[in-house]
Design a protein that fits this description.
The chain folds into two domains: about 110 residues, no CATH class; about 80 residues, no CATH class. Helix content is about 5%, strand content about 50%. The chain is built from two helices and 20 strands. The strands form seven sheets. The protein has a seven-stranded antiparallel β-sheet, with no helix packed on it. The chain has a three-stranded antiparallel β-sheet with strand order 16-17-20. The longest helix is centred in the N-terminal third of the chain and has 9 residues. The protein is globular and about 45 Å long. The two termini are about 30 Å apart. About 25% of the residues are buried. Keywords: Membrane, Transmembrane, Transmembrane helix. InterPro entries: WG_beta_rep. Pfam families: WG_beta_rep.
């Protein structure tokens, strides 16, 4: 945990190994409020990193500066005193991918992957998976907002998302899309609270 100008945050340490044709990532970190896949040219090296924040996010530049200065502390993700709601576990290079687990190590959900990366946040939510079903989690807290009950689901746009049952995914090897099924629109529950 770090604190700067009244904002408490947590940076997840990432170790990237670059080979001739592959890149491996080892990580030990946690997610409290928001996880985001970002690319950075920190000290001239391109790497993919996960970043987690608690409370408000500081500007990315400030967070990278703190990392470059070696001021990020070791994260005590699974200790009883940990302030974090959930922890990241896994790797983007395994079949199960990155998963969110509770303090007891029980899987809460898997992140939904889109275009070779984690699903980006849209209107305060990102898509998640439990088994083969898709739902949505709050991008700020990581908590499930819409239970994973859908076979297909698009990101929220203008307060609504298209979701489907009995639809199937097709691919041309590079792109994926859904066909068939029974579709409906759902309303972003975060907008209804305002």
């Amino acid at each position: 945990m770090q604190s700067h100008k009244g904002i408490t945050y947590c940076l997840i340490p990432i170790f990237v190994t670059l080979g001739d044709s592959e890149c491996s990532i080892k990580m030990n970190g946690c997610l409290s409020m928001k996880a985001r896949l970002i690319k950075s040219s920190l000290m001239g090296l391109w790497g993919t990193m996960f970043m987690a924040t608690v409370a408000q996010a500081m500007p990315i530049e400030d967070q990278f500066q703190l990392m470059a200065e070696g001021k990020s502390e070791k994260i005590r993700c699974f200790e009883s005193s940990s302030p974090f709601l959930y922890c990241l576990k896994g790797s983007v290079y395994t079949k199960s991918g990155i998963r969110l687990v509770d303090k007891h190590g029980n899987e809460v959900y898997q992140f939904y992957y889109f275009d070779n990366g984690l699903d980006p946040e849209s209107e305060g939510l990102y898509r998640i998976r439990q088994g083969e079903k898709i739902g949505y989690a709050n991008a700020r807290t990581g908590e499930i907002v819409i239970n994973p009950i859908y076979d297909c689901a698009y990101p929220f746009e203008n307060g609504k998302a298209k979701v489907g049952m009995k639809c199937q995914q097709q691919t041309d090897g590079e792109h994926r899309w859904w066909v068939g099924g029974e579709w409906q629109e759902i309303v972003n529950p975060l907008n209804m609270k305002n």
